[in-house]
Structure formats: structure tokens, C-alpha cells
Amino acid sequence: MPTITFSLKDCQQLIGKKITFEHVESMLRNAKAELTINGDEIKAELGDTNLPYLWSVEGIARYCKNNLQLPNNVLHLEPSSQNIIVEKSVKTIRPWIAGFSAEGPALSDAFLKQMIQFQEKFCESYGRRRQKIAIGLYPSEHIAFPITYTAVAPESITFIPLGMQRQLSLKQILEQHSKGKEYAWILEGMKTYPLLKDAKQQVLSFPPIINAEKIGKLEIGMKHIFFEATGTDEEAVNLAAVIFAYAFAERGYKVMALQLIQEKEKLKTPRIEWEKKKISPAEIEKLLGVKLKEQEIASLLIRSGYQYAKGVVSIPPYRTDVLHAVDIIEDIAIVYDFNKIPEQQLATATIGSAQHIVSTIDTARDLMVGLGFQEILSPFLSNKGILTNNMQSTEEVVEIDNVMSETYSAVRNSLLPILLELLSKNKHVSYPQKVFEQGIATKRDRKVIADHELLTGLTTHEKANYTEIRQVLDFVLNMMGVAYQIKEATHPSFLQGRAGKILVQGKEIGFLGEIHPQVLENFNIEMPVAGFEIDIQGLEE
Prior knowledge:
This protein is of the alpha+beta class. It has 4 domains: 3-68, Phenylalanyl-tRNA Synthetase, Chain B, domain 1; 83-269, Phenylalanyl-trna Synthetase, Chain B, domain 3 (Phenylalanyl-tRNA Synthetase, Chain B, domain 3, 3-Layer(bba) Sandwich), CATH 3.50.40; 275-340, 2-Layer Sandwich (Phenylalanyl-tRNA Synthetase, Chain B, domain 1), CATH 3.30.56; 356-540, Bira Bifunctional Protein, Domain 2 (BirA Bifunctional Protein, domain 2, 2-Layer Sandwich), CATH 3.30.930.10. It is 30% helix and 29% strand. The protein contains 16 helices and 28 strands. The strands form 6 sheets. Strands 4, 5, 6, 7, 10, 11, 12, 13, 14 and 15 form a 10-stranded mixed beta sheet that branches. The two termini are 44 Å apart.
């Protein structure tokens, strides 16, 4: 839960109206924020991690202006001749970058403090400790465009990192700089590291670790600023640029789009897109039980930050949390005030009870925890690269049309690749590592698509092998009173001769064994891994 601080006076100036702390507090309560004040300083604990645009006073001011139906500073991206050249070398390391240039009033102490705080909160929370997103801000007047985003050998480049007085190589920065030590795990196992440099070969930064001391530091009074965000998720990187661009617009800056030159393709950055969704008074009445007129709906939507015309809602580019018309109706209800919605009596009464499989699942989970395995809860969505390519599998997966992000473009058909992906991200953690997950996976057999309750466990350390994971499986199934057989089998994800299929009453319900070396290489895992996966529904039949 991000916590930020800001000046009430600064917030009032951005809103353009002198309002009390109590008024700000009452409006932000709808955004799940808890505020306290000490003199002029407001401390805000923000409970909604889906609204990162609120993690700065500029976003809070925009939220309040919407609520008060005051005019907002509109973001108009001005054209620019400045370019960012993206080289192929970053494609397998940290492939995405977005950015913009901003010109405006002299950088104030209040705005500089907010940008430093915002950058830190955004990268740590939404950016998953800089792994998913890292952000850099620079004085444009010291930069010679075009900027090149490339990957270089760890000891091929030296520069003076922020906060130091001597030149270090990228490898030395990871070993000696405080930020290098803190975030070195993100680049673990990589043979080359990402780098940003300008047309004069000056180093801007070593993302996601540290900026350069010479041209990577903002100071009060500067009027020309360059922003960049790099990361592993294209949509998230673009969102970061969009949100920060709106923050600069709130401060009265002119924001200029840049061009990404990538494999001879030219793309505008950042992308500003207002997604549209249709909504009707009937839908609102059905969900809220309140009959609203068209004019009331328009007013409530505008106060929520949307644009509305003739049944079509335009969602601001900094709101990627709106996935369905229901999300919009929820915002309408928040501004309308839930307390004003009349209560209704329950129309039906039922007696609930757990399905029998829930007891089986709980028993299996308790046994795995008892064996020292750590339970994981992962996203339901993944992508075909992880689910099939990395696993050397030809099994069909359910793919999603019109995906928002390639990272989440398919429904998981197994928990095994999900846990392997987890292990690949946790190589900085001490070994042995033992993890498991129980959850739903969706399997596809031509036109038949079905959900399956799976239990998957992995163990990894320098001596992980078939015998160890077989003992784990034997213990779990014996304690559950399941009669089963293990027969040698061939599986593309497992080592030949070190894998088996699990049979219950002659029916295959899962598999176990040592993960194939090529699969480990695909996931960039350096330790042996052994694992199993069973269909819990097969234990019920």
C-alpha cells in the first residue's frame, strides 16, 4: 500500500481553488485513501494499487478537480524531431522503452520532490522493484539526441554513477554502488546489460540500476526535461510514460512525443489512447437499483474522470484498471454515494456447503506445507512462450483475442511452467527452494475446453532428483489414502528415463520427474529441478 506526502498549499495551487484538508480528505476517501495532516504536510496512505496515477500530488489534484467539476489541464502531445533508437541487442534483456520531453516553468522544489517520490513509489510498487518498470528523468539541455537504447558487455563501458565521484564499469556498479547491490538480482544471469547513451556517446543511465552523475540528475530551476521508462511489459512501460506526462501537464509543461526507431519501424511514444465502452441507463439500474437520467449519468462520469457522449464512455489513458462496463458503473456508484442506494430484501435464500473436492484440496495443501514446501498464488494468465515453447510442448492452449499485453495472452494449461518461471526469478534466494501451487488450469483438446484443479510441486537445489520428488508424491498420496501406480513414461519437459506417469485405477492423472536440461536453459535456471503435477479431480473419481 503506497504512502506519499505532499503539501496542502501545493495541492490547492494545482487545483486552482483554496479548499480545506477535510474537503480533500472526503473526496479521496472514495479512492480508498486515508489522510493525516501535520501543519501543511499531508500524508496519504493509498489503498488502491490499481490507480498509480494517484501516487503524486499532481494525480490527486486531477482527481479532486474532476470531483469538483473544475477544468483540468489537458494533455496535448506536441510533435518533436527527437528520436530514441532501440537496438536489437535489448530484445531478450529488457525490450521495452517509452519516453517524452517536457518544457515549461522552472522546476520548483515542490515539483522536484514529488517527481523523486513518485518515481520511487511507482517503480517499487507498480514496477515490482524496478524489474517490470524503471524510470529515469534527465535535464534535456545536456543531452544530444538521438538517444540510443542498447545492450553492452558488463565491463565494456565506464561512467560516473549518481552519487559517486569515480568511474565504474557496469559490473563494478553492481558490486560497489548501493543501488547496484540492491537491484543486481534483476540482471542476474545476463551476459549483456541495458544502457542509454546520447549522440555524443554520453551515458544517461544503466537501467534499471542508476543514472549517470553528469547528465542524470535534475535540479531546481531546470526547464527542459527528458523522461524515459524501460521494462519487461510493453503496456506497463507505456502507462508509466502516460501517467508522468499527465503529471507534467498538470504543472503547465508542454509535453512532446518522441519517435522510437526500432528495426526501421518508427513509432510514436508515448501512446495516448482513449478506450471507449458503451453503457446504458438500463445496465446501471440493473446493477445499482437506481434509475438515473442521462444528464445525471454524464455528470457522475465526468466527476469520475471519464468523458461521456450519447451512451459512449471514453476512458482516460492513465486508467488501465477499467476492463468492463461494470468497472465504470462501480465508479458511478462511488461518486453517487453507496449510502444513497436504497436497500433491497433478498429475493432468494440458499444453504451453502463446500464441494467434496475442497476437502481433498485442503488436505493436499496441508501435506505439502508440512513437507516444507512454500505455497504460491500465481496469475491465471500467462503466454504461449512460457506455456509451450519453454516447455518443449506442442499442447494446445487457450489464447486471448485483442490482448492488452503479450505477457498475459494465454490461459495457463499447467502450473508447472508457472512455477519454473517463478524459480527463474528467484535465483538470488538461497537454496534449496521448494514451492507448490494448487489451482485451476484450462486444458484444450481440439474443441473441448475444460478447467482442471491441479496440484504441482517443484524442488530445486544442486542434488534435486527423481527420487526426492517421488518420495514427496508417495507421502502425499499415501496420506490421502489413494491407491496409485507409477510407470516410466516419456514427456518432452522431463529428462528421458527420469520421468513417470501417475495412474489411479488405470487412468493417468499426472506426471513426475526431473526437468529436462533444455527446459531449464529456456527458463535460465542453473540448478537441477524435479517436480510433479497431478489432477486432483482424478483422485475423486
